[in-house]
Design brief:
This protein is of the alpha+beta class. It contains eleven helices and 29 strands. The chain folds into three domains: about 260 residues, FAD/NAD(P)-binding domain, CATH 3.50.50; about 80 residues, 2-Layer Sandwich (Alpha-Beta Plaits), CATH 3.30.70.2450; about 90 residues, Glutaredoxin (3-Layer(aba) Sandwich). The strands form ten sheets. A five-stranded antiparallel β-sheet has the order 14-15-16-13-17, with helices on one face. Helix 1 packs parallel to helix 7 and helix 7 runs antiparallel to helix 8.
């Protein structure tokens, strides 16, 4: 849905094939997202819709330590607790406001691509013709498998049951750790349903466990099944960790769980997928409409693959630290002491939150390749937030130096030129204070593609404009 929204904002014809009959989920599923994902939604002007239905908290963790990031330079120095069923409902309502063709109750069975497009076969015998196909179809992705993209990684060493049920007996509060892993019982908002997460004694098989398996696992951990009954849903997940060897095969691309799967420790999964979509959307739109050459799509893998690789490394470490025999507890204690120190705290919280993401766009100013801060700008039309300029998912050249000192006339129909001033400090998460630029070129995904400094603010600008937003109109 995020990718469909990005393409629709760029005025690209997009169809979303959804095998479910609607976006109503049984059960709550995933539990929220971190700061950079909230910023991404803020860049599109829809963050408040999610914030209104969630709960902000300091939720970035390492071992047993909550990493306080309230001092990070962002409008959203926190995580947002909001279950996936709410996220999907809010997202679907937003997408319904955009020109997106929703094909509910349809399932992709396969595809064939040629030099001009992709023929997508649906399970009911129909087919679609598209310029490009993006598989956002999860860890068992039909699209990834049909594209022949390898999915290397690590097999499961543990598995968990997760369920939403009702209990006859009062459950104990809090989280339990043992040599197997983590266990928790959490009363939901309705005051009746309990969310259960249990680490199994042996690796389970299949994604659809039975009620009997859940009862046996409860008895093993707590000595009772609490009179469990009336399940809303029961599922199983593991610490299988894999990442697609390539995010693109010709006219077929991958995003979200189809490109990377991992243990959910740390709650990074939803955010990684949404940020994949925002990185890919504007690039795919520019290639489709002929603004940019096709090789722009290669930068999607180049930028997002390393980000997911780091996240996968963190989730594997975090999953290991959830086991608490005596030897592992000693490691947890040491790591927890380190995690509260200022520099480690910032480094790890920056990774988990996504606020430290740095795309390698070459040498230069510290802003280059990093997120544009959401500054309070002064313009001729009054005060303006930097993120407001990104609501339409268009690139922005922000001139903070001499008015009229930057000329982008050959790209004026593609790139917004905004004259503004800003007298405050420039500060980035983890890095801290950085020199004030005289101009910045900001991509639609909110990352800085070029930085002007001093009187030579125009140096390298044409090259950056051409690289990211296609040849000039006079070329």
């Amino acid at each position: 849905m995020m990718l469909a929204a990005e393409l629709a904002l760029a005025e690209v014809d997009v169809a979303l094939v959804e095998r479910r009959p609607d976006h109503v989920l049984a059960g709550s599923r995933a539990g929220g997202f971190h700061a950079r994902t909230i910023e991404v939604l803020d860049q599109r002007g829809v963050a408040e819709r999610f914030l209104a239905e969630g709960q902000v908290a300091q939720a970035a963790m390492l071992a047993a330590t909550v990493l306080d990031m309230s001092d990070f330079p962002t409008r959203h120095p926190y995580s947002l607790g909001i279950f996936q069923n709410k996220i999907e409902r809010i997202m679907a309502a937003w997408v319904a406001e955009l020109p997106v063709q929703m094909l509910y109750g349809c399932e992709v069975a396969g595809f064939a691509q040629d030099g001009a497009g992709v023929d997508v076969a649906l399970a009911d015998g129909r087919s679609l013709r598209a310029r490009y196909l993006v598989g956002c179809d999860g860890g068992r992705s039909v699209v990834r498998k049909a594209a022949g993209i390898d999915f290397p990684g690590w097999d499961a060493t543990r598995s968990n049951l997760i369920a939403e049920v009702e209990l006859t007996e009062e459950p104990p509060p809090g989280i339990r750790h043992d040599a197997t892993g983590i266990h928790a019982l959490h009363l939901m908002e309705d005051g009746r349903t309990v969310r259960v997460v249990l680490t199994e004694q042996q690796i389970g098989s299949g994604p659809d466990p039975t009620m009997e398996e859940l009862k046996e696992a409860l008895i093993t951990v707590y000595g009772t099944d609490f009179g469990v009954h009336t399940p809303t849903w029961i599922s199983r997940f593991s610490d299988t960790t894999r990442q697609a060897a390539a995010y693109r095969a010709g006219r077929v691309l991958l995003a979200g769980d189809s490109a990377h799967i991992h243990y959910p420790a740390g709650g990074q999964g939803l955010g990684l997928g949404l940020q994949d979509a925002v990185n890919l959307g504007w690039k795919l739109a520019q290639v489709v409409d002929g603004t940019s050459p096709e090789h722009l799509l290669d930068t999607y893998h180049d930028e997002r693959h390393p980000v997911a690789a780091r996240a996968l490394q963190h989730t594997m470490a975090q999953a290991t630290l959830q086991r608490r025999d005596e030897r592992m507890q000693a490691l947890v204690d040491v790591v927890s002491e380190l995690a509260v120190m200022d520099e480690p705290r910032k480094q790890i919280a920056g990774l988990i939150s996504g606020l430290d993401i740095h795309y390698d766009l070459g040498e230069g100013h510290p802003l280059l390749g990093r997120r544009m801060p959401d500054l309070e700008l002064a313009t001729a039309d009054g005060p303006l937030r930097a993120f407001t300029l990104l609501h339409a998912a268009r690139p922005v050249l922000l001139n903070l130096g001499t008015p009229g000192g930057v000329d982008i006339t050959p790209w004026a129909h593609r790139v917004q030129l905004v004259e503004a001033t800003y007298g405050g400090d420039w500060e980035l998460p983890v890095l801290g204070a950085v020199p004030a630029p005289s101009a910045v070129l900001v991509r639609p995904d909110g990352y800085v593609a070029w930085v002007g400094v001093g009187d030579g603010s125009g140096s390298g600008l044409e090259e950056a404009l051409t690289t990211w937003f296609g040849p000039s109109s006079t070329a």
